């Protein structure tokens, strides 16, 4: 399943970003909120070995897998209502993760070695209500204003087919479509191979690979620990947390299309053929 790494990648012309746990610290908020409620109802805190299976899966924080594990002694609907209320109270307090602000500001003045402008888009499984909460603080409002309104694709976007969340590639392909539809006259359409996906979750990384885009995996340290020894499978998109078929979309071990980074600090622009004009 291994292959010689590809080295002739085209310079990057578009960077497409996930949000939760990559740009902002909301994955920790999801965990903290869940644990507050679990303790309230006499249940143990959620271990990372279980949380790792939920990250990046749309609706997983209140879905059947969570409740089958949690076994809280109240109706599921009541627990979910309390969970969402606590989340909405906590999301406005979220903060950008290390390196995020500099990276996004840098990209505003970034071109590639061929002289093409580098564009950005957001592709998040969060719905509009949660996005509004997460982008309401002064810090995050500035951050998300970098993404043009018409280049934000959220989980409840009507253009996305229901049931086709990550690890399906649809959301990243739609994000690329929004970029191509808003290019200035004279800019040629951007291909998937010219895109760089930024993700923290395993299903999200798989979605980027299925979209045939280059990818950067920036996992939470505790998520990285859960997948220690399986990094090649993750980077190839071959963990298979949510089986969807279409195996031909997946990568091969060590094929060079994806890398793992500890954070978004000191991002290696030159590796992707990008350079700043500032």
TrEMBL record:
GO molecular function (one): phosphatase activity
Organism: Phialocephala subalpina
Protein name in the entry: Probable GS1 protein
